[in-house]
Amino acid sequence: MSDEDDKKKTEGATLEEQLAAALADAEKWKGLSRKNEERATSNAEKAKKFDEHEEANRTELEKMQARAEAAEKAVQDRDAKDASVKLRDDIAKEKKFDERKISASALRGGTREELEAHADELLALIPAPATTASAEGQGANGTVIGEGELSVDDIVQAATAR
């Protein structure tokens, strides 16, 4: 309804009719206002719930990002450790640690130069193994002693007889 319609209704009406129409009009607007307030309150509650949901999702996203970053760091740490172990093993092999029965894990250092310097120090401290005579020509192990060969007892007897 427009204002012109309201004026037409109230022009020929008595004062009581005008008052009743004004009260009815006021009640109508009060009802519409209350509906509007209810809608606004409902929307505010929904907006608050939506904001809480968004915050919870943001927190979940942050948690997932933190987990992903931690996993990436763990992978990087493992790769760095594997590379360090491989470098130590390579240097130990180059310096022939196995000939002196030195474990590659004995090497200390963070860079190739530090590891090589430490390897040289260890090699200087630990003497090279003595070369021993070979057992070539001494007979075959585990075979029966033939004629003309000495047994262990014969060797002991000959050594103690002197």
What report would you give on this structure?
The longest helix has 80 residues, at 15-94. This protein is mainly alpha-helical. Helix 2 (15-94) runs parallel beside helix 3 (112-125). The protein has helices spanning 3-11, 15-94, 112-125, 152-160. Helix content is 69%, strand content 0%. It is built from four helices and no strands. The relative contact order is 0.04. The radius of gyration is 50 Å and the shape is rod-shaped.
How are the SSEs ordered, and which strands pair?
Layout: H1 3-11, H2 15-94, H3 112-125, H4 152-160
Helix pairs in contact: 2-3
Helix content: 55-70%
Total number of helical segments?
A: 4
**What portion of the residues fall into strands of 2 or more residues?**
under 5%
Estimate the global geometry from the Cα principal axes: rod-shaped
Radius of gyration: 50 Å
Largest sheet: none
SSE pattern = HHHH
Low-pLDDT regions:
none
Distance between the termini: 144 Å
Structural class: mainly alpha
- How many beta-strand elements? 0
pLDDT average, as an integer?
83
